[in-house]
Design goal:
Distance between the termini: 24 Å
Radius of gyration: 14 Å
Structural class: alpha/beta
Helix content: 25-40%
Number of domains: 1
Shape: globular
CATH topology: Transcription Regulator spoIIAA
CATH superfamily: STAS domain
Strand content: 35-45%
Order of helices and strands: EEEHEHEHE
Largest sheet: 6 strands, mixed
CATH class: Alpha Beta
Number of helices: 3
Protein backbone atom coordinates (compact mmCIF):
# COMPACT_ATOMS: atom_id res chain seq x y z
CA UNK A 1 0.00 0.00 0.00
CA UNK A 2 1.31 3.41 -0.88
CA UNK A 3 0.92 6.86 0.56
CA UNK A 4 1.62 10.35 -0.65
CA UNK A 5 2.45 12.91 1.99
CA UNK A 6 2.39 16.69 1.88
CA UNK A 7 3.98 19.13 4.27
CA UNK A 8 1.74 21.93 5.51
CA UNK A 9 3.37 24.95 7.12
CA UNK A 10 1.25 26.80 9.66
CA UNK A 11 2.27 29.98 11.46
CA UNK A 12 3.07 28.05 14.63
CA UNK A 13 4.03 24.55 13.39
CA UNK A 14 4.73 22.28 10.45
CA UNK A 15 2.60 19.20 9.82
CA UNK A 16 2.90 16.26 7.42
CA UNK A 17 -0.44 15.13 6.00
CA UNK A 18 -1.09 11.99 4.01
CA UNK A 19 -3.27 13.22 1.12
CA UNK A 20 -3.40 10.12 -1.09
CA UNK A 21 -3.41 6.73 0.57
CA UNK A 22 -4.09 3.27 -0.82
CA UNK A 23 -5.90 1.43 1.95
CA UNK A 24 -6.51 -1.87 0.14
CA UNK A 25 -5.73 -3.53 -3.16
CA UNK A 26 -5.64 -6.89 -4.86
CA UNK A 27 -4.87 -8.01 -8.41
CA UNK A 28 -7.71 -6.11 -10.08
CA UNK A 29 -8.98 -3.41 -7.68
CA UNK A 30 -7.80 -0.74 -5.27
CA UNK A 31 -9.33 1.46 -2.57
CA UNK A 32 -7.78 4.91 -2.28
CA UNK A 33 -8.50 7.58 0.33
CA UNK A 34 -8.00 11.28 -0.33
CA UNK A 35 -7.82 14.11 2.19
CA UNK A 36 -7.25 17.82 2.20
CA UNK A 37 -6.99 20.06 -0.83
CA UNK A 38 -6.21 18.95 -4.38
CA UNK A 39 -5.10 21.49 -6.94
CA UNK A 40 -2.43 21.97 -9.57
CA UNK A 41 0.30 21.79 -6.91
CA UNK A 42 -0.42 18.17 -5.98
CA UNK A 43 -2.59 16.78 -8.80
CA UNK A 44 0.48 14.98 -10.16
CA UNK A 45 0.66 12.96 -6.93
CA UNK A 46 -2.95 11.86 -7.39
CA UNK A 47 -2.27 11.02 -11.05
CA UNK A 48 0.82 8.99 -10.11
CA UNK A 49 -1.12 6.93 -7.55
CA UNK A 50 -3.96 6.18 -9.97
CA UNK A 51 -1.54 5.45 -12.83
CA UNK A 52 0.43 3.04 -10.66
CA UNK A 53 -2.69 0.99 -9.94
CA UNK A 54 -3.69 0.97 -13.60
CA UNK A 55 -0.18 -0.06 -14.63
CA UNK A 56 -0.44 -3.04 -12.25
CA UNK A 57 -3.67 -4.20 -13.89
CA UNK A 58 -6.11 -2.85 -11.33
CA UNK A 59 -9.16 -1.75 -13.30
CA UNK A 60 -11.64 -1.01 -10.50
CA UNK A 61 -10.51 1.99 -8.49
CA UNK A 62 -12.63 3.13 -5.55
CA UNK A 63 -11.67 6.67 -4.52
CA UNK A 64 -12.98 7.94 -1.17
CA UNK A 65 -13.26 11.74 -1.27
CA UNK A 66 -15.02 12.16 2.09
CA UNK A 67 -12.06 14.02 3.61
CA UNK A 68 -11.45 16.31 0.61
CA UNK A 69 -11.91 19.98 1.48
CA UNK A 70 -11.18 21.42 -1.98
CA UNK A 71 -10.56 20.11 -5.50
CA UNK A 72 -9.79 22.31 -8.50
CA UNK A 73 -10.25 21.58 -12.19
CA UNK A 74 -6.74 20.16 -12.53
CA UNK A 75 -7.38 17.45 -9.95
CA UNK A 76 -10.87 16.77 -11.33
CA UNK A 77 -9.24 16.39 -14.74
CA UNK A 78 -6.97 13.71 -13.27
CA UNK A 79 -10.05 11.81 -12.08
CA UNK A 80 -11.74 12.17 -15.48
CA UNK A 81 -8.62 10.92 -17.30
CA UNK A 82 -8.31 7.93 -14.93
CA UNK A 83 -12.04 7.21 -15.42
CA UNK A 84 -11.58 7.17 -19.20
CA UNK A 85 -8.58 4.88 -18.91
CA UNK A 86 -10.47 2.51 -16.59
CA UNK A 87 -13.41 2.37 -19.01
CA UNK A 88 -11.08 1.69 -21.95
CA UNK A 89 -9.79 -1.31 -19.96
CA UNK A 90 -13.36 -2.45 -19.11
CA UNK A 91 -13.13 -1.20 -15.52
CA UNK A 92 -14.39 1.75 -13.52
CA UNK A 93 -13.34 4.50 -11.18
CA UNK A 94 -15.93 5.03 -8.46
CA UNK A 95 -15.96 8.20 -6.35
CA UNK A 96 -17.36 7.63 -2.87
CA UNK A 97 -18.03 9.94 0.05
CA UNK A 98 -18.17 12.98 -2.20
CA UNK A 99 -18.84 16.09 -0.07
CA UNK A 100 -22.02 17.99 -0.95
CA UNK A 101 -20.16 21.06 -2.24
CA UNK A 102 -18.03 18.89 -4.53
CA UNK A 103 -21.09 16.95 -5.73
CA UNK A 104 -22.77 20.27 -6.57
CA UNK A 105 -19.74 21.37 -8.58
CA UNK A 106 -19.65 18.07 -10.49
CA UNK A 107 -23.36 18.36 -11.25
CA UNK A 108 -23.16 21.99 -12.43
CA UNK A 109 -20.20 21.12 -14.67
CA UNK A 110 -21.99 18.05 -16.05
CA UNK A 111 -19.24 15.81 -14.73
CA UNK A 112 -21.72 13.70 -12.80
CA UNK A 113 -22.48 12.26 -16.24
CA UNK A 114 -18.80 11.43 -16.80
CA UNK A 115 -17.62 10.31 -13.36
CA UNK A 116 -19.26 7.42 -11.55
CA UNK A 117 -20.26 8.90 -8.18
CA UNK A 118 -21.59 6.59 -5.48
CA UNK A 119 -24.29 8.68 -3.81
CA UNK A 120 -25.27 6.08 -1.18
CA UNK A 121 -25.17 7.54 2.29
CA UNK A 122 -23.10 5.95 4.98
Amino acid sequence: MTTVESTVVYTDHVETITCVRTVACDDWRAAIELCGEFDMSNAAELRAELDEHLAHGRRVLRVDASAVSFMDSTAIGVLVAATQRCRAEHGSLILTGVPARMQRLLTIAGLDQVLLVDTAER
